[in-house]
From TrEMBL:
Gene3D superfamilies: 3.30.70.120
Gene Ontology BP terms: response to metal ion
Molecular-function annotations in GO: copper ion binding
Family, similarity comment: Belongs to the CutA family.
SUPFAM superfamilies in alphabetical order: GlnB-like
Short name of one Pfam family: CutA1
Alphabetized PANTHER family for the sequence: DIVALENT CATION TOLERANCE CUTA-RELATED, FI09726P
Protein name as annotated: Divalent-cation tolerance protein CutA
Length: 117
């Protein structure tokens, strides 16, 4: 959600190969205040092309709630912690949501301080 102060909430998505990788990533992002909340959705199937072959794998989907102002740091952290050579990192703006939840999200990622875009 964008507001008059330039705040923009994001849903950032990635996938990892297993629950242990997902747990490690989620905890690190929340501890670093790059994410307010991370949802882990286990046992999804992915079909994709990699190095000229069609591959299929079981993965864990990771949904990260963050803010635009921290996106660059968040992407660096995901790349640092991610086990894949080319991790999926896709961010979409949250265009609407509960005001109370979005205020909570903003405070968690800001570490209790105001975020300026």
């Amino acid at each position: 959600m964008n507001d008059k102060d330039g705040f923009c909430a994001l849903l950032v998505m990635t996938t990892v190969p297993d629950e242990a990788s997902a747990q490690k990533l989620a905890h690190a992002l929340v501890e670093r205040r790059l994410a307010a909340c991370v949802h882990l959705l286990p046992s999804i199937r992915a079909v994709y092309r990699w190095q000229d072959a069609i591959e299929e794998a079981t993965e864990v989907a990771v949904h990260i709630k963050s803010v635009q102002a921290r996106y660059a740091e968040l992407e660096i952290a995901i790349r640092e912690l991610h086990p894949y050579d080319v991790p999926e990192i896709v961010a979409v703006p949250i265009v609407a949501g509960s005001r109370d939840y979005l205020e909570w999200l903003k405070k968690q990622v800001a570490g209790g301080t105001d975020i300026q875009e």
